[in-house]
Amino acid sequence: MPDSYSPKILIIDDVSTMRELYTRYLKRDGFVAVEAESGEEAIQLAKKTNFSGILLDLNMPGIHGIETCRRIRAIRRHKFTPILIVTSEDKTSSYIEAFEAGCDDFITKPVNSVVLCGRLKAHVQRAELYRKNEGMHEVLRRYISPETQRMLDKYSGMGKTPPPEKRELCILITDMRGVRQLAQEVDSEELFQSLGAHLSQQAELVYQHGGYVDKYAGDGITAIFAGEDMERQSCLCAQAIIAFGQEVILKKRSHLFVVSCGLSKGSVVIGNIGSADHLDYTVIGEPVNLAARLSDCSSPTSIVVAENIQAVASKDANLMFIPRDDILIKGFREPANFYELTPSVHS
To answer: How far apart are CA 103 and CA 105, in angstroms?
Structure first.
């Protein structure tokens, strides 16, 4: 093993001479050995220590080797840790039970040091790849939307991208006023942190109301809502975002970002756009453009809603809408009426 990398191996055996023998084998091959004389001791060590691998005797007094394996595998930090069982048994039933408990391999007694260290190295290297892939996957989840994750999970093993899909969705776009002016007055790092905190809370409110964030812009988000209750939930979310923005202003916890929202509904296309080297899985269509226009033309702290959302959401008596006859959006195929959703009222 490289000098800079010394994997820590947990040796579990009730016989001290066997532990000493395995320790000698492992140290000679660059491993760090930690000994445990019982399943109980091993489980406690595994709960608080990250091990690169585990050697486990099958037949021990107290907690049996198979039960020890099962309990260690259930510990989150050892989800991928290779567990190699050392035994003199040659029973198929024992092998089946051990693999079901989560073991990765068997080493038969008498133990050959070359076989032991060779198999252990292979399992440790494989586990490291699993951990790296898992860590990368966790990081990617923070950069892509749940809809993109769903698409990747479904199609990543097929070697192809999904065809565009038409869907009826509600689109919510927020616009934070004053960002450009603040960029000239406030330190860029401070502004970036404040913007990030504000957008993070907007996104949290979107997810709380059953939607997901399709895109972040420097001064707002594009959120998507689907399902039977999407009209009402998108309106409730917009109210919550406006309420949060006003709370920030009143408490002066951050820079004075004034938020407005535009809401529209209609048939959109979800699919991949971009080049062969860089794709973006996103939503495009007239409702997206309309929501952006409504957000732009709305006054600060207001929510402007398309008529097809108002017609459904107004069935909730707690959602109040005011006609906005002064809003005229040009360039769309169908003339439309718009409404302003009044702020939420807290008792």
So the answer is: 6
